Amino acid sequence: MSNYILPHELEAGATFPACLDNQFVTWNTFQKLVTNPELNYNSLEIQTERKEATQLEFFRSAIYSSQMVINRAFFQNNEFLFNLYGKSADEKDTKAFAKLVQRRIFLPFMMEKGDVFGDGDYTKKPEAGEAFNHLCEYMPNDFPVLVSADDAENVRKANGKLHLVITTWVI
């Protein structure tokens, strides 16, 4: 069972690093993708740029923010992230990552209370589950997890109005 934290308990300097999203690209990389039809997310050049930018922005956020809120989906689909604490990582790095979670510096985020590594409607990489289980070996069962203040309200927003705003903006 997790130790749930509500948004009002976050420190003023908390950040939500967008660089961990599996669709993250910098503005320069986005311009390349738009202007060069032969490039896509699978292109080696784009993969290299995304990996370097993710690493740079992740560590920048870790250095300059008091807390880093990490969407639970990122634990399951961001290879950069789960390589920081997975079985292939150095044990001292895994222990350090676990301590940062325990100290509420890295906070897994879920929109609703539940299992941090439970079901979710997002892409999952198979090796991520093994990496997360490895990380949990270094943490107590009640590690801190940020949750929404009002689950029902967030679900309503996610399924309704917010979707319309995003759809309108994209169209």
Low-confidence stretches: 161-171
Termini gap? 42 Å
Major beta sheet summary: 5 strands, parallel
> What percentage of the residues does DSSP assign to strands (E)?
5-15%
Task: Work out the count of structural domains.
Answer: 1
Count of runs of 4 or more consecutive helical residues: 8
Strand order of the largest sheet: 1-5-4-3-2
How many beta-strand runs?
A: 5
User: Helix amount, in percent?
Assistant: 40-55%
User: Over all CA atoms, what is the radius of gyration?
Assistant: 17 Å
* SSE string: EEHHEHHHEHEHH
Which geometry do the CA atoms define? globular
Structural class: alpha/beta
**Mean of pLDDT:** 80
Question: How would you characterize the overall build of this protein?
Answer:
The chain is an alpha/beta fold and 171 residues long. The protein has one domain. Helix content is 49%, strand content 11%. The chain contains eight helices and five strands. It has a five-stranded parallel beta sheet. Helix 6 (126-136) links the parallel strand 4 (106-110) and strand 5 (144-147). The longest helix is centred in the N-terminal third of the chain and has 21 residues, at 44-64. The protein starts with a strand and ends with a helix.
